[in-house]
Specification:
single chain; 74 residues; alpha+beta; Alpha-Beta Plaits; 3 helices; binds iron/sulfur cluster
Length: 74
């Protein structure tokens, strides 16, 4: 069974929270986050998004800055 998800990053929230972008990169066990080109931002690594384990660590790191949206299961 595959889970298809989308990861939304609230740039404003991430940018305003010192160290958060780096923390997101560190917490995700499957490297879905990378540092963005602008200082203090994070981006998703599209080719890794389908590896998401729904571990919730990113949303625990920033409940307002990150949302993992389940699209559908197959
Ligand atoms: S839920 Fe876990 S695996 Fe999925 S993006 Fe967040 S930290 Fe990464």
């Amino acid at each position: 069974m595959a889970m298809f998800i989308r990861v939304d990053i609230e740039d404003d929230v991430v940018r305003k929270t010192p160290g958060l972008a780096k923390k997101l990169v560190e917490v995700c066990p499957v490297n879905i986050f990378k540092l963005g080109s602008a200082e203090g931002t994070a981006e998703t690594v599209e080719e890794n998004v389908d590896e998401c384990t729904l571990c919730d660590l990113c949303m625990q790191a920033s409940p307002e800055g990150v949302r993992v949206v389940k699209l559908y299961e197959s």
